[in-house]
Amino acid sequence: DSGVTQTPKHLITATGQRVTLRCSPRSGDLSVYWYQQSLDQGLQFLIQYYNGEERAKGNILERFSAQQFPDLHSELNLSSLELGDSALYFCASSPQAGRGSYNEQFFGPGTRLTVL
Amino acid sequence: AQSVTQLDSQVPVFEEAPVELRCNYSSSVSVYLFWYVQYPNQGLQLLLKYLSGSTLVKGINGFEAEFNKSQTSFHLRKPSVHISDTAEYFCAVSDPWNTDKLIFGTGTRLQVFP
């Protein structure tokens, strides 16, 4: 158990809908990351937040957005869902964030999203 | 841009046999290198990492990896595998402009048979 929790574990929805995935980082971790794991794209970095502010962006679609709240939990919002958005979404956390230094990321168990 | 290539999508092996999972990366600057393991229905767990120093890195569960700068490789090895090592293994490299951003390979499925 990494200490990172994600809810829900599974989510089934229809095309065009909007969903919210939630992540609670390890106690004391200030940085949160979101990753998408899909069959065709593999494991991709989406976005990083540090202490409530966006830190880095990866291959995140405009239909997707995220935020980190004052209590440091994070939410990933996916809207206008398409079949291709079906994937496993991982959250990870690390104590700090810093360019050029190493911050070990601890991964949650993931949320499996199925879009029908 | 950095990229990671895992040459084998699947590696079948018998229990107690040695195994090597191959990983090559492309980068013109120094990067950090990682191997993660994903057991069924679980998140990713860090096996080992190379940040600097000794090119032979030892990790958890008896795994080790060797960083080879000239061949831009970071192959993962274990001298004797167990059934419990059956999992998906991901090689990753850090983005040199933001070392928190990890770029993953496509994964190698290690299947250990009795």
Features:
heterodimer; A: mainly beta; seven-stranded mixed beta sheet; four-stranded antiparallel beta sheet; 11 strands; globular; B: 114 residues; mainly beta; six-stranded mixed beta sheet
Note the main sheet of chain B.
6 strands, mixed
Task: Please tally the β strands of chain A and state the result.
Answer: 11
Q: For the largest interface in this structure, which chains are involved and how many residues does each contribute?
A: A-B, 28 and 23 residues
Counting DSSP E segments of at least 2 residues, the number of strands of chain B comes to 12
Helix fraction of chain B, binned, reads: under 10%
Number of distinct helices of chain B: 0
Beta-strand residue percentage of chain A: over 45%
Uncertain regions spanning at least 5 consecutive residues of chain A: none
- What structural category arises from helix and sheet content of chain B? mainly beta
Order of helices and strands of chain B: EEEEEEEEEEEE
SSE pattern of chain A, N- to C-terminal: EEEEEEEEEEE
> What is the quaternary state of this protein?
heterodimer
Give the overall shape of chain B, derived from the CA principal axes. globular
Average pLDDT level of chain B: 93
Q: Radius of gyration of chain A, Cα only, in angstroms?
A: 13 Å
Using only C-alpha atoms, the radius of gyration of chain B works out to 13 Å
**What sort of overall outline of chain A do the alpha carbons produce when their principal axes are compared?**
globular
User: What is the structural class of chain A?
Assistant: mainly beta
End-to-end C-alpha gap of chain A? 31 Å
Number of helices of chain A: 0
